[in-house]
Amino acid sequence: MTTEGYIEMECIQVTQPIGTFYIGVIDYEDLINISFADIRHLDRELDDYLGIQRTLSGKRVEELQQYVNTVDATFPTAVILAIKSENELNPDEKNAIYDPKTKILKIRADHDVAKIIDGQHRIKGLEGLKPGKKFQINVTIFIDMDIEDQAMVFATINLAQTKVTKSLVYDLYEYTKSRSPQKTSHNIARLLNSKSDSPFYNRIKILGTAAPEFKQVQILTQATFVEALIKYISGNNRKALDDRNLLKQDKRPPRANSAESHELIFRNMFLDKMDAEIAKVIWNYFSAVEERWPNSWKKTEIIGNILPRTNGFRALMRLLPALYNRLNGTGNLPQKKDFLTLLQKINLKDGDFTSDNFLPGSSGEGTLYSILANTFTN
Length: 378
Description:
Blueprint: E1 2-3, E2 6-16, E3 19-27, H1 28-34, E4 35-36, H2 39-49, H3 58-67, E5 79-83, E6 96-99, E7 104-108, E8 114-118, H4 120-126, E9 136-143, H5 147-159, H6 166-172, H7 181-194, E10 204-205, E11 220-221, H8 222-230, H9 237-248, H10 267-271, H11 275-292, H12 294-298, H13 310-327, H14 336-343, H15 362-374
Parallel strand pairs: 4-8, 5-9, 10-11
Antiparallel strand pairs: 1-2, 2-3, 2-7, 3-9, 5-8, 6-7
């Protein structure tokens, strides 16, 4: 609520060893209006203490601006702000006033009043919220906080916390009720990883960390597998989030037309709930890879053997649409023998898939894909 040039919010006063701070709730528009991230100044100050860099990630902001418009968007953790009680431009005016009797904190409703200690990506994301939507944010507010304390709070949040892996995020989709490209891709990864006759048996690190008994063979992260598969359902992660949002609202995402389906080979199958058929195509394809180059695919313990690892897997997945489209004219699912017939045309021998021939990183993946694809374009 804004009255007489101030935003008023009911707050809880909290006392901890660092001092006293306030916890409350603010409308997102008010938060955007009063907050600022003085990146150059804060970087210089924090660098004196901790060497922290605090630059915005444009990609992350773009993702959050999309996310805040989904039906189940949430920022449950607090944005942390630091406010100087005195207005330096007008010493007679207060930036923040707390009344312990009413538990009301008044913050001057003006730009650049509250410095962002943590949450600048979320606040920039909220700038993309569509008009008319309600979104409140819980905030933790420090009044007259020393820069040393700001640095320590920043470091505790950004350096001491445990990072969440992409693979764990995808694993959590198993517990969602509604269908989504993410959940389907996760389930297929788990299926192929669990079946003893699968070409991916115990090769996928479902939670991004290898189990001790399989550490020599778990050479693909779940995120690598899922993101490669999502590409052929939705196109990319951002579009997959759009699909998930529509499905969660019981709306049907658009089907791929004949031109789009050449790249989005699994989209219409996904929309028709043919998840088992998608899994079977992947299974058949990589079983053919395993038979075509058995030593390179099976000998995961050999250092420098790239075929079963990330670069080899990604290159093979990039090749899949070209082969699938050649084999799908009958309307039947391509079988292992069908894929094998095409793979035998590729002029690469078992044992050629070394890091000497295909350098680590994206360049090696690109080189391998070019050799594979040229077989079917020349």
